[in-house]
Amino acid sequence: MNILVINSGSSSIKFQLIQMPSEALLCSGLIERIGEKDAILSYITNTVKLQKTDYISKHKQGLNKIVDLLLDAENGVIKNIKEIEAVGHRVVHGGNSFSNTALVTPEVKRKIQEFAVLAPLHNPSNLEGILVAEEDFPFAKQIAVFDTAFHQTIPEKARKYAIPNNFYEEQGIQVYGFHGTSHKYVSEKAIAYLQLEKSKIISIHLGNGCSMTAVVNGKSVDHSMGFAPSNGLIMGSRSGDIDHSVIFYLVDSLGYSLEEVNNLLTKESGMQGLTGSNDLRDIEKEAEKGNSECILALEMNAYRIKKFIGTYVAVMNGLDAIIFTAGIGENSSMIRKLVCTDMDFFGIDLDESKNEEKSQELREINSSISKVKVLVVPTNEELEIAKQAFGLLT
Ligand code: AMP
What we know:
Layout: E1 2-8, E2 13-19, E3 24-32, E4 39-45, E5 49-54, H1 59-71, E6 84-91, E7 102-103, H2 106-114, H3 123-136, E8 141-146, H4 156-159, H5 165-169, H6 180-194, E9 200-206, E10 210-216, E11 219-223, H7 245-252, H8 258-267, H9 270-275, H10 280-288, H11 292-316, E12 321-325, H12 326-331, H13 333-340, H14 352-356, E13 363-364, E14 373-376, H15 381-393
Parallel strand pairs: 1-6, 6-8, 9-12, 12-14
Antiparallel strand pairs: 1-2, 2-3, 3-4, 4-5, 7-8, 9-10, 10-11, 13-14
Helix pairs in contact: 1-3, 10-11, 11-13
This protein binds adenosine monophosphate (AMP).
Adenosine monophosphate binds at residues 207-208, 236, 279-281, 326-328, 331-332.
GO biological process, one term: acetyl-CoA biosynthetic process
Binding site for substrate: 90
Subunit structure: Homodimer.
């Protein structure tokens, strides 16, 4: 079965065509800067690597270009649109309505729209991707895979905020959790690698967005993001945890509007706010040159991760492994080292030369005396979406 996986963002569409159950990747690609004159379309198959700049005004036009590429006589990977039997969509927020992957129905679309208030940057473009795919792939089943689904197992004591109960019961104000597709994928890989029947794992997803999950026996039991993908760790441009009194102070004493506060905390904070860049590669280069702001920002970033490790060891009463994943987690030996230094009380001991090795494979980077395994597990949210879509349809 050929499954097209679509991750439709506000100005981008990522896609992969995956053959299941073999998991063979037929092609992958990305359209960035939708709505701008110089949108970039990249497309990779086993034999070709293309990049074009074009004006792509809307998602519809972007998806049409993807269809043209898939069917292209020279560089395409299918001959007929009917060869795509399912389209798997990443949907960020499924509220409490979805603990599993779902076949898209009018009711499912209505729910995704309803939860757009909880994920205004993500759900509207995820839904747009579904609507356009329904038109472009009328023969395919449309499947929605929710980032929040993996976290539906978080117990109430960790899920509820300590505010009056009616906000939880009537308004759904609670921890939802995010990056679930990634945390599920990498923790399952780790459990299979470690061959553990019972396991206590901390999954650390460090990309543009960053989050951590405590995973007991394959199930999420606590998570660093909450109601929206904004709190917890320090991220590219999001502050992560901050005392909510700061928001009142900004509004009441400094005259900020709520929109300005939102912008400040989600787009101008985090590593961006601390260093002027949200790209960790630039920050690391500057730190190596001795830039004290960048050195401190990296230390703050790692310090926050350490605090969550401590919290989750306490919550799980033990720890078998920690996993680093996503752009930073997979590539930044510097962040991994900062996180794992002075953690011998927890039985975490890094092998510094293994930490420096570059690889695209799952790898173990702890020393031989480390009680806890330290793993780098490349995430693959697209493959996880294809697996879940395939699982639903077979
Ligand atoms: P993601 O959201 O998973 O694509 O991750 C994006 C983040 O990964 C950005 O902050 C990049 O700076 C970071 N990143 C990507 N490659 C590297 C690398 N080789 N070293 C350090 N950070 C990296």
